[in-house]
């Protein structure tokens, strides 16, 4: 890995370090029902990211003092495996994973009909097996599919993407080099049909015009990503009915 000064992230033809155009997504593949013992599960490959999600519940919240008498509690646990990055990560939760777990929990809670399950909890485990930038958004997008696969009642699927500034240019779906050496990173997630924003964060600086450009690119991309989510779920139900 080079340093910011010796890496050229966009070449003279306007192509990025991995050969993509500014508005091009990395390849995305989603599969459901990958874990037999979970109520719902999903596996996503998004660029170099490889992430597994397992959902359990709704079930009675325990210990009982954590129960909410009006709604279910959504507990997401985001974890990066020690082998998921080049330099081995110390096992167990750190400040970053705790923060990401919290924002994912809140985003999913906005999508789930939690009021239908008082005193219950829904557990979502997100395990990053291989990391290549944008893991929180990829994990959240897969978690939404896993919840739907588990039959958890939802207002809509949560779908997200990232954009950022690289070599002074706004680009979609940052890869690892762009995330490490770019000037800004903007992860964003919405409810697919309503467009309600359920997660937005920013690292770095963008002008108002750049921010508007980045969010517009993300919103356009979420339409394509949501179609991949829906195709994964359709494939699950076709398989359950014994179709092709």
TrEMBL record:
InterPro entries the record matches: ExoRNase_PH_dom1 (IPR001247), ExoRNase_PH_dom2 (IPR015847), ExoRNase_PH_dom2_sf (IPR036345), PNPase/RNase_PH_dom_sf (IPR027408), Ribosomal_Su5_D2-typ_SF (IPR020568), RNase_PH (IPR050080), Rrp41 (IPR011807)
Record-level GO BP terms: gene expression; nuclear-transcribed mRNA catabolic process; rRNA catabolic process
Entry-linked CDD domains: RNase_PH_archRRP41
EC number: 3.1.13.-
Broad class of enzyme this protein falls into: hydrolase
Bilayer-crossing regions: none
Localisation per UniProt entry: Cytoplasm
Keywords: Cytoplasm, Exonuclease, Exosome, Hydrolase, Nuclease
Location of the Exoribonuclease phosphorolytic domain: 24-153, 156-214
Main location: cytoplasm
GO cellular component: cytoplasmic exosome (RNase complex)
Any one GO molecular-function label of the UniProt entry: 3'-5'-RNA exonuclease activity
Pfam families noted in UniProt: RNase_PH (PF01138), RNase_PH_C (PF03725)
Quaternary structure and interacting proteins, as annotated: Component of the archaeal exosome complex. Forms a hexameric ring-like arrangement composed of 3 Rrp41-Rrp42 heterodimers. The hexameric ring associates with a trimer of Rrp4 and/or Csl4 subunits.
Family: Belongs to the RNase PH family. Rrp41 subfamily.
Described function: Catalytic component of the exosome, which is a complex involved in RNA degradation. Has 3'->5' exoribonuclease activity. Can also synthesize heteropolymeric RNA-tails.
Protein name: Exosome complex component Rrp41
Lineage: Archaea, Methanobacteriati, Thermoplasmatota, Thermoplasmata, Thermoplasmatales
Name of encoding gene: rrp41
């Amino acid at each position: 890995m080079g340093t910011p000064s010796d890496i050229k992230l966009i070449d003279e033809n306007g192509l990025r370090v991995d050969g993509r155009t500014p508005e091009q997504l990395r390849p995305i593949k989603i599969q459901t029902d990958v874990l037999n013992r979970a109520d719902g599960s999903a596996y996503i490959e998004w660029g170099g990211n490889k992430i597994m999600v397992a959902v359990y519940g709704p079930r009675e919240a325990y210990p009982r003092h954590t129960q909410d008498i009006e709604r279910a509690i959504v507990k997401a646990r985001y974890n990066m495996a020690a082998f998921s990055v080049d330099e081995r990560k110390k096992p167990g939760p750190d400040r970053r994973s705790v923060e990401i777990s919290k924002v994912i929990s809140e985003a999913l809670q906005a999508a789930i009909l939690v009021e239908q399950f008082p005193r219950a909890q829904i557990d979502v485990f997100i395990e990053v097996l291989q990391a290549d930038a944008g893991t929180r958004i990829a994990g959240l997008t897969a978690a939404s599919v896993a919840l739907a696969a588990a039959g958890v009642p939802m207002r809509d699927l949560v779908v997200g993407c990232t954009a950022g500034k690289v070599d002074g240019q706004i680009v979609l779906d940052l890869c690892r080099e762009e995330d490490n050496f770019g000037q800004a990173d903007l992860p964003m997630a919405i409810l697919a049909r309503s467009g309600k924003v359920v997660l937005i964060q920013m690292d770095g600086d963008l002008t108002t015009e750049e921010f508007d450009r980045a969010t517009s690119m993300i919103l356009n991309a979420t339409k394509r990503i949501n179609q991949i989510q829906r195709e994964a779920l359709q494939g699950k139900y076709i398989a359950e009915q014994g179709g092709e």
